[in-house]
Amino acid sequence: MPALNEFPSPDTLKWAFTTRRVDQDALAGLSADFAAAVAGDLVLCRVAQLGQHRKLQLAGCRTSELYPGDLVVLCLGDRYAPDQFEGRAVLDGPVADLLAGGGIVGRMERAHSRMAPPTRLEPVGILIDASGRRMNVADYALPAATIPDHVTVIGVFGASMNSGKTTAAVSIAHGLAAAGYRVAGVKATGTGAFGDFNAFEDAGVPATDFTDAGMPTTYRMPLPRIEAGFEALVGNAAADGAQIVVVEIADGVFQAETASILRGSRIRSRLDGILFAAPDALGALGGTQVLRAHGLRPFAISGMVTCSPLGQTEAVAATGIAHYAREELTSAEVAGRLVAGFLRSARPDATDRAA
């Protein structure tokens, strides 16, 4: 293990996706005070033993194979994933766990039965800058911003993980862009990873996520901080010209932060419309009932349920809400029609439409 303050050049390290906004040249040393570390702090680790995650998502938005002995820069963070790991943002021993492939390190607490043991890491040190201050992703966050009144904000919620939220979000964003609107994508909650980020970019829609707001994950983050992150992300997207911002909220309606958002928050109050994603007919019915209990009704339902014609028929009959498959949401005509009733002042940009 390298001695403290004796470390390789930053460009020889594997910097995780969660660190992509960090100024790597600010790295000036390492601290061994692991007990003082907090969520978002940058941690230099050595890969000790490969497990569930055998690849790391890099700051450059590509994956890298991991090898024992690799030196990686990760973010200390909590993890919430019912189909993978739950973990806590602590470094309390000689080894730690890779909780997510986007670059989250901490201690695994619970795992889905299908998961292999987590990849094991040896913490080398907490990154510090020239002033001796711990480097944290919050130091590199986008500036605070307010959301202009004219910007339309669409929230995308789901019944659960893997219900099709991201596909629904990027599909309607693509459709609205095809209709001539200036659209941005935002992932407001979740665990730092580039899958959703890249999906928006692949759809031709510029994207930011909560890591851009200085949070490696939003699990166990105070609601006011999540709200401030949402406002910064949407506000900065608006400052860059977005007329419509599609905001994906991670996990399902029972996840703690998602439930808090739905119960009452600055996020909920700023949403102009809700698109819901469900894995099946029961998920569609149960999810819409939860939304109804909060006084909310989605303007449409999408997700995995639309992959099955029979399942979709059941879901429409049970909910009374129209369902749209990915291919339909990507249509300029369909996407434009779905949002027409709650647009604020956005109008298709004639130049974009002509192009």
In the predicted model, the low-confidence regions spanning at least 5 consecutive residues are 1-5, 350-355
Q: What is the subunit organization of this protein?
A: single chain
Strand segment tally: 17
The whole-number mean of residue pLDDT values reads 94
- Tertiary shape: globular
Give the H and E element order.
EEEEEEEEEEEEHEHEHEHHEHEHHHH
Radius of gyration: 21 Å
Task: Please name the defining characteristics of this protein.
355 residues; alpha/beta; 6-stranded parallel beta sheet; 5-stranded mixed beta barrel; globular; disordered C terminus
SSE inventory with pairings:
Layout: E1 14-15, E2 29-31, E3 42-49, E4 55-57, E5 63-65, E6 71-76, E7 79-80, E8 85-88, E9 96-100, E10 104-111, E11 120-128, E12 152-158, H1 165-178, E13 183-187, H2 194-202, E14 207-209, H3 223-239, E15 244-248, H4 256-263, H5 266-270, E16 273-277, H6 281-293, E17 300-302, H7 309-319, H8 326-329, H9 332-339, H10 350-354
Parallel strand pairs: 1-6, 6-10, 12-15, 12-16, 13-14, 13-15, 16-17
Antiparallel strand pairs: 2-11, 3-6, 3-11, 4-5, 7-8, 8-10, 9-10, 9-11
Please, could you describe this protein's structure?
With 355 residues, the protein is α/β, with parallel strands linked by helices. The protein is 26% helix and 23% strand. A 6-stranded parallel sheet has the order 14-13-15-12-16-17, sandwiched between helices. The termini are far apart. The N terminus and C terminus are likely disordered.
